[in-house]
Structures are given as structure tokens and as C-alpha cells.
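Annotated sample (chain length 334).
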Amino acid sequence: MLAAAALLMAAACEETPAPFETEIPARPITAPVRLAVAYWGDDAFEGAIDNVNHTITFQFEKEGVDLSAIKVHMELVSRAVASTGCFTDTTLNLTEPYAFVVNNLETDIHYTMIAKLPNFYAVDRNDLSVLYGRPGDAKIDLDNGYGITFSGYELFDGLWMSGYQCFGEIAYHYFGWVKNQDNPWFTIKSKEPFKMFKARVYPYWGFRQYDPCQFQIWAYTGAGELPEATPADWRTNGSWQMLADVDISGLWLQIQDLLTDTSNVGNPEYDPCVNGAEFQIADYCSDIPTSQYYRFVVVNSFYGVYKDEMDPNWSARVSTITMSELCVWKYGEE
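Output written by the structure step:
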């Protein structure tokens, strides 16, 4: 009996052992796209990769991007398998969504590449106002000194000339000041905070003489409400950020050409007063702070830049500033 049991145990020990599983099962990849970057000129825009909805979104923060010819670089993780439409470097037409397929070791995943341009909207001029009589700011004229009284809304009344020095169209109303100012700036308040993306200045004297030629745009970034008065150190106390430093002095040269043939007054091809002087605040929307208060600082009028070349008596007139209108655009959703 004992001998039989021993023989059975020996036979069991001599059976071939079951093979040991040495390979780890391949698990599907949940995030097969590692990186996607789009290029426009010298600027690079990293795509936002959504591995749940399988989209890659490029948010272009600049104006003037041609979506029909965008260079794109894409990288997959090491175990992902490139399939239909995949690439490493190529040029794409992103005016429409671009589709490609990646295999995650279990199934094909269909991705969509999308490009978005920034949204810009004109700020309603009725939502903007100049803070007249503000201590520490320029003392703004409320009449022209010749019997014409101003409304106080000239900068945002929607009125500007259709061409060079068509004063009658706006009843000889201007925004600005005649007397010398120790503080050549004024403060603008918006009904709601916004990101200022770009602006346009319309002249009164036709981009010469008293019109702002070199100027700056600042945004209030301080905590809480704007103080009731503008302190002398407002530019250096950390409460304001300069958004733009603008020089439109070249427009006077265009006006000089225009005056050689005044029949072109009002023709936008020759008369820069028709469309005003437009300038962008920043290259990237992400660089623009959100603010309810903005400050326009006059550095020089056209007299202050061109001096004797414009008028031998420029020094007696350099402190006067005139404008017709300021139009502003905001970035974001309407």
C-alpha cells in the first residue's frame, strides 16, 4: 500500500510543469498624442490635447494668421502606432478641422485638429467715459474758446471727419486741451472690465500740429477701486501696466503728400484721416490684463516731434492736444 502511494507521488512529480507566463499583456494607451505645436512666422502655439474627446485645439492669439498654411509638428508616445493622416512635420490647411488616426494597441482612435483665431469686438462707445476733473489728470477743455461749448463726450460720441480737416462735419468739436498741462494724460473708465486688444485714433487737425503723435496706453492693475486722485508716482507704484507705446509720426509725411493734390482728400488710398491710426495693444492676448480703467498718456504732439520742420512757432503751441475720436476693441467673448 505504501509502495503504491510512493509510485503515484513519483509519477506526479515527473509530469511536465505548466509553462510560466513571461509576457505582460499590452494595455491600451489612453494618451497617444504627446505633443502638438503649430507655427506661424516666428511664433509657436502649443495645442491643447484632449484625450477624452480626441481633439487638439490651437488657439492663435494674434491677428493676421493665415490658417490655410500652418506648419505643425506632432509627436506620439513611443508605443502608439501612427495611422491614417498621422505625421511628424507638415503644413496643414486649418481653415477646416483636420482628421487623423492613431492606434492605441487596441483600437483606432480618430482625432480632430482644430484652429481658433482670437475673437475681437468693438467696445460699445456708450460704455466708455473720460473721467473729467480728476485730480492729477489733465484739465480737459469743455469749450473751444470761441463760443462753442462741448458736451464732454467728444472722445466717444461716434463723430469724426470723413477726410483731412473737414471740421464742419463735427461742428468744430474736439477732445483735448489748449493750456499747458503738467500731467498730459487722461483716464478712461469702462462700464465693465475688459482686455483692450487694439484701438484707433481719429485726428482733429489731420495728423499734424496739435494731434497726439507719440503716446502710450496704460491699464490699471491695482487692487480694488481706482484711487480718487492720480498720484505723481502712478507709473512706478505697481498699480499700472503700460500696454502700448505708439508712434504715428509717419502719418504727417502722408499728409504732406496729400496736400500736393487736395482732390484726394477723403480718398482712403491717400488720406489717412479717413480710417484713422489703428494700433495693436500687444502681440499676444495672454499678455493683456483685464481692466476697467485705462490711461492715455500724450508724450508728444506732431508739433513736439517735427518742431521747426512743421512750424517755426512750434514751441508756443506744443502743449495743446486735440483728438476727434478714440475707438477701442476688446478681446474675448461678446
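Annotation: The first strand starts at residue 33 and ends at 40.
Annotation: The helical segments are 2-13, 250-258, 302-306.
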